[in-house]
Amino acid sequence: MYPLVRELADDNIDVAVTCRVLRVSRSGYYEWRDRPVSGRARENELLVKYIEQIHADSRGTYGSPRVHAELTLGLGMSVNRKRVERLMRQAGIQGLYRRKRSWTTVRDPAAEPAPDLVNRHFTVDEPDRLWITDITEHPTGEGKVYCAAVMDAYSRMIIGWSINSHMRTELVTDTLGMATIRRHPDNNSTILHSDHGSQYTSWAFGQRLRTAGLLASMGTVGDCYDNAMMESFWGTLQLEVLDQKQWHTRDELANAIFEWIECWYNPKRRHSSIGMHSPVTFEALHTRSDQDH
C-alpha cells in the first residue's frame, strides 16, 4: 500500500488521512519512504530507460527477444532475458505481432514451370547460393502498390526490390536487375526460387535469368512453406509498415517501403534465425571470418 500512499501524497492528499483510510501505519510509511533505494531497484530503473530507448529506436516493433539481443549484443550488457521480459511487462512495453497475409501472384496454367531445386532446404552456408523472390501488394488512396523483392537466403538480406502501380513482368525483371547489379552472382551456381506466378514463368523473366546465369527453381503450387522466408519477410513488412496507417498516395507508401528496407531492415533489424544480427552485420561477420581463415 505504501507506493499508493506516496502517489496520493504527490497529489497533495494528506498522508495521515490516506494511511487511516488504507489502514496502514503512518510511521511504517515514513520508514518505507525514507529507506535507501536498493541497488537492484536502481539497476532496474536504468535498465527500463535502456529498454524504452531500444523500443523507440525499433520504431515500436521490438518485443523482449530483440530488445534483449540489443542489450547484450549491441550494448554489451549482461542481463537475463526473463528479467527483460518482466520489466517490459511492468512498463507496458510490447512488440508487434504479425498476421497472416493473402497471396498476390497469379499462376499461368499454360506456362511451363521450372523444376524445384530447393525442396524446402533453405539453409545455405554462404551468400549468393540461394535467392528467393516474391510479390506483395497493398492499397492506397490512389490504388494498389505492388512490391517485388529478392532475398538472399543466407543472410535474409533484401538484395533487390522494385515498386510500381502494376504487377506486370517489368516489376520482377527490374527487381532481378537490381539484385544482379548489387551482387554479381557466379554463373550457374546461384539458384533463384519463386512461386508459379505468371511473372516468373514469363519468357522475359526466363531470358533475364539465363542472361544473368541464374538457375530457376519453383516450389509447389499454392504451398506457402515452399517460400516461407519471403512469407516471413512480407509479414514483417505488413506489420511494421503497411498496416501502420492509411496510405493516401502510391508515392507515400513507396517511399516508406524504400526507407524501411534500406535504412532499417537490412542494416539494423535483428533476426532470430541469424543469431539476432541484422542482415548487413551477419554478412560482414561472415566475410571477416573467411578473411581470418
TrEMBL record:
- One Pfam short name: HTH_21
Record-annotated Integrase catalytic domain positions: 123-287
Query: Which PANTHER family does the UniProt entry name for this protein?
Result: TRANSPOSASE INSF FOR INSERTION SEQUENCE IS3B-RELATED, TRANSPOSASE INSO FOR INSERTION SEQUENCE ELEMENT IS911B-RELATED
What is its biological role?
Answer: Involved in the transposition of the insertion sequence.
Q: What is this protein called?
A: IS3 family transposase
Taxonomic source organism? Actinophytocola gossypii
Q: What is the lineage of its organism?
A: Bacteria, Bacillati, Actinomycetota, Actinomycetes, Pseudonocardiales
